[in-house]
Amino acid sequence: METAPAYHLILEGILILWIIRLLFSKTYKLPETYKLTEKEKEDLIEEWQPEPLVPPVSKEHPAITYDVVTGPPSHKIIINGKECVNFASFNFLGLLDNERVKEKALASLKKYGVGTCGPRGFYGTFDVHLELESRLAAFMKTEEAIIYSYGFATIASAIPAYSKRGDIIFVDEAACFSIQKGLQASRSFIKYFKHNDMEDLERLLKEQELEDQKNPRKARVTRKFIVVEGLYMNTSDVCPLPDLVKLKYKYKVRIFLEESLSFGVLGEHGKGVTEHFGVNMDDIDLISANMENAVASIGGFCCGRSFVIDHQRLSGQGYCFSASLPPMLAAAAIEALNIMEEDPDIFTVLRKKCEHVYSALQGIPSLKVVGVSFAPALHLQLERGSGSRVTDLQRLRSVVDYCLDRNVALTVARYLEKEERFLPPPRLQA
Amino acid sequence: MTESPLTKAANGEVGPHVTNGLKPGRNGVLRSVHRCQQDEEEVQRSSNHGGFYNRPFLESYEETPMLVAVLTYMGYGVLTVFGYLRDFLRHWKIEKCHIAREREEQKDFVPLYQDFENFYTRNLYMRIRDNWNRPICSVPGAKMDLMERVSHDYNWTFEHTGRVVKDVINLGSYNYLGFAENTGVCADAAAEVAMTYGVGLASTRQEIGNLDKHEEMEKLVAEFLGVESAMVFGMGFATNSMNIPALSGKGCLILSDELNHASLVLGARLSCSTVRVFKHNNMQSLEKLLREAIVHGQPRTHRPWKKILIVVEGIYSMEGSIVRLPEIVALKKRYRAYLYLDEAHSIGALGRRGRGVVDYFGLDPGDVDVLMGTFTKSFGAAGGYIAGRKELIDFLRSNSHSAVYATSMSPPVVEQIITSMKCIMGEDGTTIGSDRVRQLEENTVYFRKKLREMGFIIYGNNDSPVVPMMLYMPAKIGAFGREMLKRNIGVVVVGFPATPIIESRARFCISAAHSKDMLDRALSAIGEVGDLLQLKYSRHRQPASSARPFDHLYEDIDG
C-alpha cells in the first residue's frame, strides 16, 4: 500500500479544519436594515396620525335623507306625506297587505312571540321552520330546502359553503351584489363572462378544459361552478337556461341558480325560470331565492337535492351562526305559498300587466326601457348619458320628484359606486 | 397518545393547557401563577390594574386536569379508529350506507365534497346529533315545549312522534331579560303593527323601505346607548359582515381577538384589510401588536397604516368572559386606534341600567368609536344596530351594503324593539325593565356560585350570564345533553370545532325569567348528572356558604 504524498495529507487536513470552522461558526444573518431604539419608536408612535374613521359625507349626498314612508306599503303608498301609486316596491303578487297573510302572522305571534332567541342549532328551530322548509321543497319539487333569516345572506352564505380556495366559478357580469359578496367570501378563482353571452362562456370553459388537460391531477379536485340568476336584478332579462344545462353536461360544471326575482313570477305555477323553460329541476344543483319579493315576507331559502342542501346545515355561515327567522315571518311565507298554490291565475294576471306596462312605456322620448316584456321589474335608462354619473343621477332624481308630485312612486336604482364590479349606468327602477 | 389527524390539528391550541404551572396566564394582565408542585393552579384573579377598574374583575379559567386531558385524547383516538373502520365497511358495502349520494348522471363530475372534510361529521358528529337542532313549538321563554323525536338508525334520520314534551326548563335560548313572550305589552304592540303595516317590506332602506317606525327606532336606540345616532339592520350577522368592509379597506389594519365570532371574522376578511389576531383578552399581546404596527407600518412597503381598528366583543359567548374595556380604551387613546365593540350578548344583559358593557364599567359611550349590537338576545326580536357619532352613521347610511341592497326590517319586529327598549329604559312608566335587569344579575351570581360550590369547572367572569361548564370528554357531551333532557331540562352542549378539541363544554344562558325555583331544580338535576357522569373536576371546592347570594358583589377595592 502506498502512503499518500505529503501535500495530499496537508490539503485534506486544511479541508477538515475548514469544515470544522464552518460547522461552528455563526450562521450568516441578513443584516437588519435598521434596529430602532426605544426613543425612535416612541417618536414614531407620537407622530403617527390615522385617517378619520369615516370620510366626511357631503350634505347633498342623495342617500343621507331617505324618503319616509308612513303607513303600509301596498298598492298605494304614502311617501313624505303624499299618497302615490306604488311602482317602486318589489311587491309582485300584491301580498304585502293580504289579509290572510296578516292573520296567519298574527296567530303565529300570539303563539310564539316575536323573536327566536337562538340559532337553529340551539333551540331556535321551530315547527314553523320545519313546515316551511318541507312546503318549499314540495312546491319546487325538490328533495330538501333550507331557510335563511335574511335574503342577502342566502346566496352569500351558500356559495362559500361549496366553493373553496382553488375552485373555479364562472359568473355572469350582471350578477347582483349579494352574489359578488358570496364570491368574495369563497376565495375561489372567478371568471366573468359577458352578460347572457353563451359563446363567451363556452370560450372560457374550453380554455379551462385545456388547462385541465395539462394538469389532470389538479383538475380532478378542482370543482367548477356556474352562477347565474333567473331574472337579473340589474338588467331585467332572463338567462338562457337550456343552453346552460347543455354546457353543464358537456363540460361537467355545476349550476347554481339564483331566483330572487323570478320565484313566484315566472312559469305557469310560479316555480321560477326552470318551469318557464321546462327544464328538469334535477339538472340544477342548487336554487337559491329570497322571500322578500313575490313572497312578501323576509328571509331566503335554498332548495335542491338532499346531497347538496344538507351540507349547508353545518357549513352555511348565515345559517349556523345567526338567529333563525322569526316564526311569524315564516308563517306569513307559508300562507303566501298557500295562496300561490291555490290560485295559479295570479301569475297570468301579473304577466299580462307586465306586458301592458312594458308596451306603454315604449316610446318615451330620451328614456329607454331595459328588460324583457314579462319582467315585473323594469329599468328606465337615459338614452344619452351626459358622461357624468352625478348629473345623470340628479336628472333622474328630478324625474322621480316630478312623478311623486303626480302621485306615482318610482325610485332611482341604488348601487354602491365603489364596490360594484361592473357598475350599471344610472337608471330608474319600476 | 394516538396521533390522529384531529388531535394533530388541535395540538397547537391545546398544548399550553396540558403543561403545568409555568405558562403565562391566559389573561395576560395579572396572573400570579402558583408555582406549586403538580397541576394546582390558582383560580380566582382579582385585577385592580392601576385604578382602571372601579369594581372587582373576577375571572377564572381553571386548567384542565392532566388525567382528564389524557383520557379525552384517548377517547378521540378510539373514535377516529372506529371512524376509519366504519368508512372502510361502508366503502365495501358491508355496512348499510345512509349518506346521500350524488346523482347517477353526475357521477363523473368532480366530487362536490372531499371525503376527508366530512370525516368528522360522518363519524363523530352523527353519533350525538340529537343534542342539536331540537325543534320547539312554543315561546322560547324560561320554559318551553319540545317536539319529541326518535331515531331508529342511530341519528341518520329523525322522526317526530307527534308527542310534545312540555315545560322543559330552557337553559339554552338567549333570553337574558325575558322578553321572549307572547303576552304582554310588547306582544300586543307588535300585533297591532303587524295588522296595520303588514309583515314584509319588499324594498331596501334607500329606496322606499324606510318607514317612520324605522326612524323612531333609530332615535330610541341612540338615546338608549347615550350616543348621537344609530342605524339599524335586519340581521345581526349581516351587520358585521356588511359594515366592517365599509369602515376599513385596503391599507388599514384590523386587530381582532382570538375568539371573535364568525361574523366579525367574515367582515374582516371581506374588507381586504390586513388582519392580525391578539390573544384572547390579553392586553399585553394587543399592546405589542399596536406598537409593532405603528412603528413598522405596512408589511414590506413600510408605509404608515391608514387606520387601525380594534375589534372586540362585549361578552364572548363560548368562554363567558367579559372584555377588559377600560384597558382597551386607554390603549386606544394612547395609540390613536379606533374601537369596534360588538355587544351581541352584553347589551341589555350587563350594567346597572342594562346598557351593556360600557355601562358595566362606568365608561363614557363616546370613547367607543363604533358600538354594535344585536336585538336577538336581550330584546326578543331580530336584527342588529350600529351606533356612534353622527358622521359615522351618515357615512353608513350612504355606504353600507345593507342600506343599498338588503331589505329593511319587518315592522312588527321594529315595534317589538321599540316597546322592549322603552320598557328597559323605564319610559313606559313601570319598573319592569329595571326589575328584570336586577333579577338577571342576582340569578347569574347565584347560579355561578352554586355550580362552583358543587365542584364543576366554570369558565368566565363572575358577572356574565353566559356560563360554560366543562365536560371535556366526547362521550360526555352526548350523555350530558340526553340525561338533562330526561330530567326535563334543555341545555346546549358544544364541542369541536366551535371550541378547542379537548375543551367541550355545556353552556348555560341565564335569564331574568328564570325563577329561583327553576334555578334550584336545574341545579339539583345538574348535580345529579354531574355525579352520574363524574363531571365534578374542580380541585378548588369552596365550602357552601349560607350567606346571601350577592353579599360582596360591589366590594370596592379601589385605591
UniProtKB/TrEMBL annotation, chain A:
Cofactor(s) named in the record: pyridoxal 5'-phosphate
InterPro entries: Aminotransferase_I/II_large, AON_synthase_class-II, PyrdxlP-dep_Trfase, PyrdxlP-dep_Trfase_major
Transmembrane spans: 6-24
Catalytic activity: dodecanoyl-CoA + L-serine + H(+) = 3-oxotetradecasphinganine + CO2 + CoA; octadecanoyl-CoA + L-serine + H(+) = 3-oxoeicosasphinganine + CO2 + CoA; L-serine + hexadecanoyl-CoA + H(+) = 3-oxosphinganine + CO2 + CoA; tetradecanoyl-CoA + L-serine + H(+) = 3-oxohexadecasphinganine + CO2 + CoA
One of the record's GO molecular function terms: serine C-palmitoyltransferase activity
Aminotransferase class I/classII large domain span: 83-372
Keyword set, alphabetical order: Acyltransferase, Lipid metabolism, Membrane, Pyridoxal phosphate, Sphingolipid metabolism, Transferase, Transmembrane, Transmembrane helix
GO biological processes: ceramide biosynthetic process; sphingosine biosynthetic process
Record-listed E.C. numbers: 2.3.1.50
Family: Belongs to the class-II pyridoxal-phosphate-dependent aminotransferase family.
Protein name in UniProt: Serine palmitoyltransferase 1
UniProtKB/TrEMBL annotation, chain B:
Enzyme class: transferase
Biological process per Gene Ontology, one example term: ceramide biosynthetic process
Family in the record: Belongs to the class-II pyridoxal-phosphate-dependent aminotransferase family.
Membrane topology of this protein: Single-pass membrane protein
A GO term for molecular function: pyridoxal phosphate binding
Keyword annotations of the record: Acyltransferase, Endoplasmic reticulum, Lipid metabolism, Membrane, Pyridoxal phosphate, Sphingolipid metabolism, Transferase, Transmembrane, Transmembrane helix
EC number(s) recorded for this UniProt protein: 2.3.1.50
Family matches, as InterPro entries: Aminotrans_II_pyridoxalP_BS (IPR001917), Aminotransferase_I/II_large (IPR004839), AON_synthase_class-II (IPR050087), PyrdxlP-dep_Trfase (IPR015424), PyrdxlP-dep_Trfase_major (IPR015421), PyrdxlP-dep_Trfase_small (IPR015422)
Domain Aminotransferase class I/classII large: 166-526
CDD domains reported for this sequence: KBL_like
Known cofactor(s): pyridoxal 5'-phosphate
Subcellular location: Endoplasmic reticulum membrane
Chief place of localization: endoplasmic reticulum
Pathway: Sphingolipid metabolism; Lipid metabolism; sphingolipid metabolism
Source superkingdom: Eukaryota
Name this protein carries in UniProt: serine C-palmitoyltransferase
Chain segments carrying region Disordered: 1-27
Cellular component, GO, one term: endoplasmic reticulum membrane
Pfam families xref list: Aminotran_1_2
DNA damage in keyword set: no
SUPFAM superfamilies per record: PLP-dependent transferases (SSF53383)
